[in-house]
Amino acid sequence: MVTAKMVKELREKTGAGMMDCKKALTQTNGDMDKAVEFLREKGLASAAKKAGRIAAEGLVTTYISEDEKTAVILEVNCETDFVAVNESFIEFTNNVAKQIATTDVDTVEELVDAKFIGDESVTVKDALTALIAKIGENMNVRRFEKLTIENGVINSYIHAGGKIGVAVALTCEKASDVLTALAKDIAMQVAAANPLFLDENSVDQEVLNKEREIYKAQALNEGKPEKIVEKMVEGRIKKYLKEVCLIDQVWVRNSDYTIKKLLDEKSKEVGSPITLSKFVRYERGEGLEKKEENFAEEVQKQMEKK
User: Fold this and answer.
1) N or C: where does the chain have the smaller number of CB atoms within 10 Å of the terminal CB?
2) Helix, strand, or coil (residue 12)
3) What is the pTM of this model?
4) Is residue 297 over pLDDT 90?
5) Best CA proximity match to 189, nearest among 262, 122, 112, 88
6) Homologous superfamily of the 1-47 domain (CATH)
C-alpha cells in the first residue's frame, strides 16, 4: 500500500511531482529505490545522486594532529539543534575526536568501551550517559573515520557550525605551506560539490552500469533512434563522471580550473607531484530521519496535563 508519507519522502528525494511520485510507487509496489529509478527513466527526476533524508541534529567535527599527518572526522548526534550548540556537548565531541586520533580504536563499539580521554575514571559510554542525564536529551556517537599519511598533509573544513565536515589527504614528498592551504581549498570543494568518488578508477562499476541503464531508458523514452542511443548514453556517462569524480570537477572558486588542473599547477609551484590521496565527507544526519513534531499539538498536550 502506497502511503502519503512514502509519496512525501519520494518527492523530497527526487523533486518530482506528487502524482508522478504516487504513480512511481504504485508501479514499483512501494519499493523506494526502484521508484527513484522509475522517475529518472521517465525524465521526471533530475538528481543523479541519491541521499537519505537529512534530519537528525548534532555535530560533525574534525581533529588534525599538529604534524598534519593524522586526522579524524566524527559525527555525534543529538535530538535538537539547541543541544548541538551546548558547550558541554561540543567539548565532549572534541574530546572524542582527539581520543580517536591518539588511540587505536577502529569501531564505535571499541570507542565507547574505552576509557574517556576527558576523565579516565569512566568510559566514553559512561561519559555520554552522564551528559545525557545532565542535558536531558538522547545522544549517540554515530560514526568516525581516521586518516593517516606519511608524506604530505591532511586538512579539514567544517561548514555551517558542524552541519558538514570534510577531511582531505594530500601526498607530496616535499614539505610546503602550500599543501595545507590547498588541502583546505579542496576540502571546501568537497563540502560544496559533494563528489561521490575520488576519480574514475574509484567509481563502482555496478553504479556505472546502473547509470547506463537509466540513461538508455531515458533516451529511448525520448524517442531517440536506437542507433544513436549508445552515443548519447556514453556522452551522458562522461558528463556524470565529471560531476561525481572530485578530480574532474570544476573548481568552485575558479571555473577556469578543474581540481586536476589545480593540483598540477600547485605541484609545479612546490616542485614535487601532489596527489589527492583521500577525502571523507560527512553530512550531519544523512540517512537518518528525525521524528517530526507538531509544535502546536505539543503545546496543547502540555496544557492538557496541567
Assistant:
1) C
2) helix
3) 0.77
4) no
5) 262
6) Ubiquitin-associated (UBA) domain (1.10.8.10)
pLDDT at 15 over 90: no
Gap between the Cα atoms of 113 and 211, Å rounded:
42
Q: Which CATH architecture group holds 57-197+277-283?
A: 2-Layer Sandwich (3.30)
Q: What is the pLDDT of residue 136?
A: 80
- The predicted-structure confidence for 251-267, as pLDDT tens digits, reads as follows 999 999 999 999 999 99
d(CA 186, CA 157): 9
* Alpha-carbon gap, residue 70 to 56, rounded angstroms: 28
> Using CA atoms, how far apart are residues 152 and 172, in angstroms rounded to an integer?
5
Q: Which of 269, 250, 103, 104 is nearest to 179 (CA)?
A: 269
Which grid coordinates belong to 220?
Answer: 529511448
DSSP 136-195: TS-EEEEEEEEEE-SSEEEEEEEETTTTEEEEEEEE-SS--HHHHHHHHHHHHHHHHH--
Average pLDDT, the chain: 89
For the chain, the domains span 1-47, 57-197+277-283
The whole-angstrom distance between residue 196's C-alpha and the CA centroid of its chain comes to 9
* Euclidean distance between CA atoms 89 and 259, whole angstroms: 36
In this predicted structure, the answer to whether residue 47 has a pLDDT above a threshold of 50 is: no
Three-state SS for 36-83 is HHHHHHCCCCCCCCCCCCCCCEEEEEEEECCCCCEEEEEEEEECCHHH
Q: CA-CA distance, 254 to 189, in Å (whole number)? A: 11
C-alpha cell at 173: 614528498
Q: How far apart are CA 153 and CA 276, in angstroms?
A: 10
